[in-house]
Amino acid sequence: MLTPTPKFFLTRPIFGLPPVYALGGVALCLVLGIMAAMTLDRMSRGDGVAGIAEGADARLPAPVFAEPETGIIRTVVADDSPAWMRNAAAFPAGDRAPRLAIIVVDEGAGAGPARSALKLPAPVSVAIAPTADSAAKTALAARSAGREVLLLLPMQSEEQFDTSPNPIAINILRTELVRRMKWNMAQFEGYVGVMNRFGENATRDSQTMRAVLEVVKAEGLAFVDARETPSSIAGAVARRMNVPAGDRTIAVARGADAAELGASLANAVRHAERWGAAIITIPAERRMVTALADWLARPVSGVKIAPVSAVIQRLRSGTIKP
To answer: N or C: more exposed end of the chain, with fewer CB within 10 A?
Structure first.
C-alpha cells in the first residue's frame, strides 16, 4: 500500500480547484469566522456594531431634535381647569381696582382693524364672528398677542338682516339648535366664552337660552350677554345655571365718531368706579381703533383695563353687585 506524500496533497485538486486556491479559501473562511465571533461577543456586552469603528460610541443616546420655531406663543396648561380659565390672559387676581373690559367686535369684515387693536397698549379683548374673514387666523393672532377671544354667536334678529348660515333662533328643534351651536363653536378655537350677536327674541326666551347655555357650560366657557334688548334674561339664566357670566354695560354703535366713543368710555369708567366692573363693546372699525388708541394714551385713574375673564371673575366674586 502506497503512503501519500506532501507533494501528493499540493498537486491533487481539492473540490475541483487547484490546491492553492482551495487552501486560500479555507483560510479566508477562518478569518471571517474569527471576526464574526469577536463582533457577536462585543454586541453581547452592549458595545454595538458601531463600536467597531474607531472613536465611535454606540451607547450615546440618539440626538433629540427640537420642533421648529413658529413665532406663535402657546400656553401649556397641565390642569383640568375649564376652558374659560385655561384660555384666559394673565391678570393679577388680587388687584382690587375697578375693572373695565373693552371688547373689539369683529362682525365679519373687520379683520384688519381687529388685528390692529391687538397692538394697543392695553389688554383689550376681541369678539369674532364664526363667519368673519380669516376668523381662525384673527383668533390665533389675538392669543399670540396675549389677548382674550370671544366667539360672537349669531342669533336671529328682529330688525337686522343677517346672512349667518346657522343662527340661533327660537321655535326650532332642540337637536337643530345644538347642531347650530356646535357648528359655530367649531369655526375656531381658543376662546374664553361666547357673546351673542343680535338675538332680541332668543335672549328673552328662557327655553332657548337654557339650551344654548347648557352647551356653553358643557364646554367650560363663559357667557357675555350683549343686552341687545333691555328685557334680555340671558345673563340671569346663565348665573342661575352657574355659568360664568357678565352683561355688556355700554355698546358703541357702528359708525360712531371719536367724540361719541370718548363719551361712551367715560360712562363705562364711571360705571366701573361705582360697581367695580364694566364691559364695553366697540366695533372693529379703523377710525374706532385709532380713537381708542388716543383715549388709552391718557391715563385712566383708578380703573384698570382688564381682560373680559377678569371682569367676569370680579362679578363672580360676590364683592360687588352684578
So the answer is: N
